[in-house]
Specification:
The complex is a heterodimer of chains A (231) and B (179). Chain A is of the alpha+beta class. Chain A has 6 helices and 9 strands; from the N terminus they run ααααααβββββββββ.
Chain lengths: 231, 179
């Protein structure tokens, strides 16, 4: 029974927030909340009073596969955000310190829409030297790599962009081809197996591509492939 | 707090069904929230279950978060705590409590200093300091480690009835002190 006396009610809510109510009383209180604004107000007040105590539980890294479990348990498939929301989901990049790999994995959920999942996919967002997202790269371990520009721009005359891959441990990047002006490219990576940790970069080169087989111009964009949990 | 702004904005995106925002929020908060759940459950597998439940709740209830009523970090922490407490209750609190050092760091005097990180924490710190020691310890052990009345009683070597009454009295005093 939820008491009627205001003081008893308030202390009951305090005990709920503290965590000392038994399962039955806690469930009763939770059931009463939606129809009882005063009870909800008491709950918010107690949560606010005791919230600073949460710092006493030290941070601890969760198991690495936890996000995958969470996502698998979410109802419905991951779906792309509708078009008007693009600005919204790009907001995190503007001044927020969120790791590019998290962004890349998030983008995977938005961009990759294929009927048959082909796990595990690899993703990265190539950033400019000022950490602005510029390209999305998606690869599968079978060796298909897709590249799309987020904000195509015109290059100066007489220059092309060349795509490179550098697997973990390798010292010399391998060319993955020249990027056509429209800013989209699907290539087979040949002998280069896409894997997590592989660096993807785009350099500025003379027409026809690098004459030496290595980047000769400045590296304009760079990113690192990570496994995308989305499906 | 600067770190609060992104979480609040992400919650607004999550409320509109944005799965990428949920992922970004996870990346940002998982270590802190997992720590909160693990302090209550002391079992990484159980804490992972609680986190899964917490993120389902976050995805469903993000629209209920009201920035006018408090910080996003506190709201998220509360969701994670209650998910962990629910799990602790359904498992009959059959969770490891036999560690004789359990809760020692939480009730240590220097721990309270960490609570006083900002203005609200400072007020809570001062009010907790004014409580009788066993009232204070009971409240800290219950909040951080999810200990039941019986477990707090065993831990502090007090009769069960006494602990219930003391915790209630401690909450009353806290509420008055924080008014």
């Amino acid at each position: 029974m939820i008491p009627t006396d205001p003081q008893d009610r308030d202390i009951l809510v305090g005990e709920y927030v503290l965590g000392t109510l038994d399962a039955r009383t806690a469930a009763e209180l939770e059931a009463a909340l939606p129809g009882d604004a005063a009870l909800r107000a008491a709950l918010h007040a107690w949560e606010a009073r005791l919230a600073p105590l949460m710092v006493l539980a030290g941070p601890e890294a969760p198991p690495p596969d936890l996000w995958d479990r969470i996502e698998a348990a979410l109802p419905g498939p991951a779906r792309p955000a509708p078009a008007p929301k693009r600005r919204g989901w790009l907001d995190p990049w503007r001044g927020w310190a969120i790791g590019a790999s998290a962004v890349a994995a998030g983008l995977a959920a938005l961009i990759v829409i294929r009927p048959a999942p082909e796990p595990p996919r690899l993703m990265t967002v190539l950033l400019t030297q000022r950490d602005q997202p510029a390209w999305v790269v998606e690869a599968d371990p079978g060796g298909q790599l897709r590249l799309a520009s987020l904000n195509p721009r015109r290059l100066e005359e007489g220059r092309v962009m060349q795509l490179w891959g550098l697997p973990p441990g390798a010292t010399v990047p391998t060319s993955l081809g020249l990027i056509p002006p429209e800013g989209r490219l699907t290539v087979s990576t040949g002998g280069l197996r896409p894997e997590p940790g592989m660096l993807i970069e785009i350099s500025l080169e003379p027409p026809g591509g690098s004459p030496t087989g290595r980047p000769t111009g400045p590296v304009l964009f760079i990113g690192q492939l990570t496994a995308a949990g989305a499906s | 707090m600067k770190a609060e702004a992104p979480a609040a904005a992400l919650l607004a995106e999550i409320a509109r069904g944005d799965r990428a925002a949920l992922r970004a929020l996870y990346e940002q908060q998982a270590t802190r929230l997992f720590g909160i759940a693990q302090a209550i459950l002391r079992d990484r597998e159980a804490a992972a279950d609680a986190m899964q439940d917490a993120f389902l709740r976050i995805s469903q209830r993000a629209a209920q978060f009201d920035p006018a009523r408090g910080e996003a970090g506190a709201w998220l922490g509360a969701v994670a705590r209650h998910a962990a407490l629910d799990l602790a209750r359904t498992r009959g609190r059959e969770l490891p409590t036999d560690d004789p050092a359990l809760g020692d760091t939480v009730v240590a005097p220097e721990a309270l200093e960490r609570v006083a990180a900002d203005a609200e924490g400072r007020r809570l710190h001062d009010c907790l300091s004014a409580l009788d020691e066993k009232n204070r310890k009971g409240i800290l052990l219950a909040f951080v480690h999810g200990l039941s009345h019986a477990q707090v009683a065993a831990r502090l070597d007090l009769p069960l009835g006494t602990v219930k009454a003391w915790i209630r009295r401690g909450l009353l005093q806290l509420r008055e002190c924080l008014t």
